[in-house]
Write a structure and sequence with these properties.
Length: 329
Amino acid sequence: MKDFSKFLEECEGAPRLNELSGFFAATAGGRSGRPIKQPQVDRRLMGEDELLDRFVSLHEQRRGPFDQHYHSSIPYRLEEECRLGHAILQYSQAISGTLNLYSLGTAEGTMARTVSELANGRVESLSCSPNVENQDSFLAHGDPPHATFFLGPFHHLTRDLIQSRPDLAKFASGFDIIFEDTTFQMYSPNRFDQIRFVSQHLKSDGLFIFVEKFRHDNDEEYFRRERQKDSGFKARFFSPSDIRAKQEAVLNRMNQNEVTLTEIARTMRRHFSHTFVTWNSGNFYTLISSNSADNLCLFSSKLSPAAIPGEYVYADLPYRLYPESYDVT
């Protein structure tokens, strides 16, 4: 059995649960960080698809206060969330049996819940957050039969806990898809142990999806993209003083826990045979990893084109993060 004692201690002392906890509680409760207007999916950027239309519509009904803040902060992150949710739904229809989905640290768990509601029993989802405000938002729409919310940080979800709790035991066999949404960067830059800990819940042929903000090897390029994000997108939803306040209260601390794509490539190849970069918005990227080339290919075939204006995209997508031939053993 792997020893995670030092890692768990590290997580308990992380910014997310300590100096940043007040920001997350207030934002999740709608007491601060509220955008001037509600973010809406730009349907001009997305293809015509009945299932996608249903996802976007239900997702809009289920969003909570933190969703509204988050999707107003990152250019076209809302469209990417709908694209990923739509792909997961299609993927669940293409495989046999029930798909287990774990969405870790994703505020109200809106994407996972929406997937479960539309899947009609084909997707059992688990979302987690340490904020009771997020749990309140999740339960505000009723307790769905195929979506579960765990109140606590991701590192509290140990294998023993999942196996011992009646409401979590259905996930004891592992997850087909794990989705990490800008969570690790709130804890530390220790991506190796973060992925190692969470991957113990992933099935051997499962998919691990990451949405993260990455540092750039060139600091000036990193900050140029940040200025573009703030002036070209966030300014539609927040005042200049609100943007400065968040930079001082949260981002300056969070940025210390970001890693570069070069660094994440070295880490990922120690865990997964294959990793593709499938979305980019300034300093934010979506990565999809797996040790199953077939499942990764199948999921990728369900992804609709990225819904984002070209000026925010700094990569030819999709592309491999590292050579396929690398031996992870």
